[in-house]
Amino acid sequence: MIRMKLSSMDKGQEDQWLHVQLWKWDGTGWDECTDHQESFIRGEEEPAVTIPSEPGLYRVDYYTKPLETLFLAAPVDPNDLRVTSLHPAPFKTKEGMLWGYINDAGKTAIEPRFEYAEEFQENGLAIVQRKGHSGLIDSTGREKIKPIYSYIAPFSEGRAVVSDEKGYFLIDEAGKMITSKRYDFLNSLQEERALFYTGLEGGKIVYGYLDRQGKEVIPAMYEDAGDFKEGTAVVKIANGEFALIDLEGRTLHTYKYPYVGSLAEGLLPFQETENGKFGYLHTDGTVAIQPQFTAALPFSNDRAVINTAENYGNAYGLINKEGKRVIPARFYEVQQLGENRVALGTPIYPDQPYRGSRYAIADAVTGQILSDHPLLNVNNYNMGLASVYDAKSTYFIDKSGNKAAQPPVIAGAGSLSFSGNLIRADVDQRTAYYNRMGKQVWKQNSIIPLRPPYSVLEKKYKPNMDYLVYYPVVEGIANVEVSRAVNDRLRNLSLAEGAGSGGGSQEFSYTGDFSVAFFRKNLLVLELNAYKFPFGAAHGMPTRVYEHINLRSGKFYELRDLFKPGSKYVEKLSEIVGKQIATDPQYSYVFPGSYTGISADQPFYVDEQALYLYFAPYDIAPYAAGFPTFRIPYAEIMGLISTEGDFWQSYH
Q1: Given this model, what pLDDT does residue 497 score?
Q2: For residue 480, what is the enclosing H or E element?
Q3: In sequence order, which residues have a C-beta less than 8 Å from that of residue 313 and are 6 or more positions away?
Q4: Under a CB-based contact definition with an 8 Å cutoff, are residues 612 and 606 in contact?
Q5: CA end-to-end span of the chain, whole Å?
Q6: Of 27, 208, 467, 599, which shows the fewest CB atoms inside 10 Å?
Q7: Cα 186–192–193 angle (5° rounding)?
Q8: Cβ contacts of residue 620 below 8 Å, gap of 6+?
Q9: pLDDT tier at 573 (50, 70, 90 boundaries)?
Q10: Nearest in space to 401 (alpha carbons), one of 376, 370, 364
Q11: Could you write out the DSSP letters of every residue in 409-426?
């Protein structure tokens, strides 16, 4: 490869994005050699382009654009700087995936600096995450509540549930703690009552309710309880005894049955005998619908989903308040979608029903099937529209069950939702925004700039509905053979070639993705993540691999490359990790006796300050612990590191 300076561009300009197209003359016309090259150039840098060293006549077309336009998919009037509404948006950067906010025109309004960002709420606040903790910002991006909490729930009735390492409590919109103490668990306010529970000595859990001021207006004394709805809540007093209480905790009715469910539209699901059939009660305790179902859900819009199959089978239908079947009980799934519509699900593969359903749309009042076009996922209706996807695309359907006139229609599987004046599309694990006319105003970037001439391009591999991989392609490596070898290896490691047979023969679903974990000097660290879910299993298995690549030589480094030849790095690192497990409370989840040291090729990654060693799920800890990771500052092991070695020098 030959590096050519773009001399007509001056130094001293502002930071820009450089877009290049490289063409080669084939004897009859200009045949495009590379689709594009996009890179970030600082004002003081000399822009350049790499061209093949093969003989030929080449043409280079290039132009610059402002930095902000990397994140801008549609033109914006520069005179219109109004922020009519803000929308959370993910950006792939060389610091990993970061979230920011765009406005209705697709222009970046709050720069990407959060690990995650949620929609702005009616009170003008949005929940964001930084360094694994949650906080709140306003529409200017200013922190109203610093990200110091483990969790913040959306505001409800002017209060939000917050948790830290000591427990749950309520805050107001100014971030002030409302409750006088923390609780083991706390629900959001519903009708000025927040359900909480606390553990007593002996392990017993009791439930009570807080009011909007954080006072225990109904003391913790129930074995179980639900949220308030229409001024009442169902609580469990003791085995075989339930009660309906009002907002002050007064008992309105008692029910002596082994199970009574939540009140909805004047009816309560119940079981007359232990492990018996389900029916429905009136609030006064009289039987409204005799027990006859193996499952009975609360009523909604005068209809309820019931099951008649024995032995935990699926034969779902829909009944009205007289107990009459509106939808016969013969479907694998029935979902109430709101606005008098239901989705009727039947297994895609009858002998493997756990692999998912195809859905038809029916009228919840008459039971009439409106559309039997096979849908693979259906969301609830909102203002006459529901987001769905089939084997090809994601789109809206109207109340007839047919494809709506409202665009967009997007290839892939996902969902559409209204976000202020825009439509948010989360399809094939990527986010984009469209206006109401269906024009795309923003999409997630697929190029991660590093520094000229390097960037990482995202490629997609999706041979069937159950197999989706995004894999990296490193651009800018000068040597063609080295570049090909690096990218072939990354594609193979990502399982993005020759995998995913499709149809009924594939016995699992698989998703894969990547991010830039670290980049400095000539070292690029890519994190490859994947999740394989065998159909019918209790859960899938995640994998995580870090690849350390020298962008000049194309070498992939291993752990041993960081250390001096012959050094006893395995023993030293094993000792350090063992000490952390023994003394640091954060590793209390490690199985006793499971840790016996690290291996010579222990999974690892590096950054500017430390070495990190990690273990796969189940290696030394429960599945829920994820990937136990141990940070080892270089200062602790500097005597073992080969500071003159190729690995260390690649990023120092």
Answers
A1: 84
A2: helix 480-493
A3: none
A4: yes
A5: 26
A6: 27
A7: 40
A8: 590, 591, 594, 595, 628
A9: very high
A10: 370
A11: -EESSEEEEEETTEEEEE
What is the spatial distance between Cα 226 and Cα 190, in angstroms, rounded to a whole number? 10
The whole-angstrom separation of Cα 21 and Cα 33 is 8
Instruction: Report pLDDT digits (tens) over 71-105.
Output: 333 333 343 333 349 999 999 999 999 999 999 99
How far from chain centre, in Å, is Cα 567?
42
The token pair that represents 592 in the structure block: 């006793």
Q: 561 φ, ψ to 5°?
A: -65, -15
Who's near 387: CB < 8 A, 6+ residues apart?
378, 379, 394, 395, 396, 415, 416, 417
What is the distance between the alpha carbons of residues 404 and 381, in angstroms, rounded to a whole number? 12
| DSSP H/E element including 583 | helix 569-583
Task: Let me know: does 430 contact 444? Beta carbons within 8 Å.
Answer: yes
Distance (Å, rounded) from C-alpha 356 to C-alpha 349? 8
Burial 406-443 (b: 16+ CB within 10 A, else e): bbbebebbbbbeebeebbbbbbbebbbbbbeeeebbbb
Closest of 70, 17, 94, 12 to residue 45, by C-alpha: 12
Tell me which amino acid residue 135 is.
G
Letter for the amino acid at 500? G
pLDDT digits (tens, 9 = 90+) for 627-647: 999 999 999 999 999 999 999
Task: Supply the DSSP symbol for 581.
Answer: H
Q: Residue 408, preceding bond cis, omega within 30 degrees?
A: yes
DSSP state of 646: H
- pLDDT tens per residue across span 218-232: 999 999 999 999 999
Distance CA 125, CA 127 (A): 7
Which tokens sit at 166?
Answer: 């000591």
What is the rounded distance in angstroms from the CA atom of residue 362 to the CA atom of residue 331?
12
Two tokens, residue 261: 């469910």
Residues 6+ apart with CB under 8 A from 202: none
Tokens representing 351?
């002998």
Q: What is the DSSP letter of 591?
A: P
Please check whether residue 473 is in contact with residue 461, taking contact to mean a CB–CB distance below 8 angstroms. no
The partner residues of 426 in beta bridges, in order of sequence, read 415, 431
Q: Which of 460, 387, 467 has the alpha carbon at shortest distance from 425?
A: 387
Distances (CA, A) of 580 to 512, 595, 639: 31, 11, 20
Two tokens, residue 248: 């002050």
Residue type, 496: A
Phi, psi of 577 (to 5 degrees): -65, -45
Examine residue 603 and say whether the peptide bond preceding it is cis (omega within 30 degrees of 0): no
What are the Cα distances from residue 445, in Å, to 66, 304, 473, 559?
15, 44, 14, 32
Residues shown for the chain: 652
CA gap 209, 214 in Å, rounded: 9
The token pair at 15 is 């930071």
